[in-house]
Specification:
By secondary structure, the chain is α+β, with helices and mostly antiparallel strands. The chain contains 8 helices and 13 strands.
Amino acid sequence: MAERNPEKILLAHGGGGQMSDKLIREHILAALANETLSKLGDSADIKLPAGQIRFTTDSYVVKPLFFHGGNIGKLAICGTINDLAVTGARPIAVSLSLIIETGFEIALLDKILESIGQTAKENNVEIVTGDTKTVEPGAADGIFINTAGIGLPLENAQMGFDKIKAGDNVIINGTIADHGMTIMSQRKGLEFDTPLQSDCAALWPLIEQLLDNTNGVRFMRDPTRGGVAVTCNEIARTTAMGLELYEDKLPVNPAVRAAADMLGFDVLNIANEGKFIAVVAPEAAQKCVDICRAHPLGKEAAIIGKITKPTKTPLVELVTNIGGRRIVQMPYGRELPRIC
């Protein structure tokens, strides 16, 4: 039986007084407690080995907050882990800041915090510091989350745009557009024989295996907002080399394809939250695919393209199923409503 008067967030929860303290101790710490966070300091004391660290930050404003395959909390932790992982860094610590709208049900907050804690624990990452603010009704779509993450780079992970060479292969670890089309289909109330599910996942376990077992990875990036099209255009523009994609090699869930066609979207422009694109030396490409396919997060990995020669006008071209070519453009602006 549903609770008649569920406890909700009030502006006073962000006022720094007793209600703030209660929210932090009874809900946030209860879900995320560890030795560092429990000190409730203004900053975290993190013991790191001497040397270089990697640092990233991101904000999450997805709607709906709960979707097939995850929620905004899981998305925030996975997204932060992935931003570190694709640079070859082992994620170790994350900050968590919550902007919560007045009237937001605390039971829903608890579910989000539980997901955050579980995802962090599964990936050996600690939530070490954070902040909580409350805002007026209508100012935050329920809840916004900001994170920052610290990671330690692997010694053997020497990746970057400057490492990419003509002839390199382009690999993805699985089907594209799952996250974006899941979000859009839920907003539109679309149902399919095979339900769509977000690919939201933390990629470090797979990426670590890949980097530990091959020396051929030149560059990695997770194709989130703007999807494969944006990532590939960034590669082409930054390296001043062409990039070919092969339509018949792109792994796409048939239900995702159907949803994209129904709503008039190009799957290459749609966000992913559990995928990486890797540019790898041609002699290492098949080994990289085999390593991915042996892992649950890479079972449908494929070589989807290659880097071509340097050019004054670097383009991304899709070689179509019938042998034609079309230019894959960088999206001009926001092609889709926000989905991450």
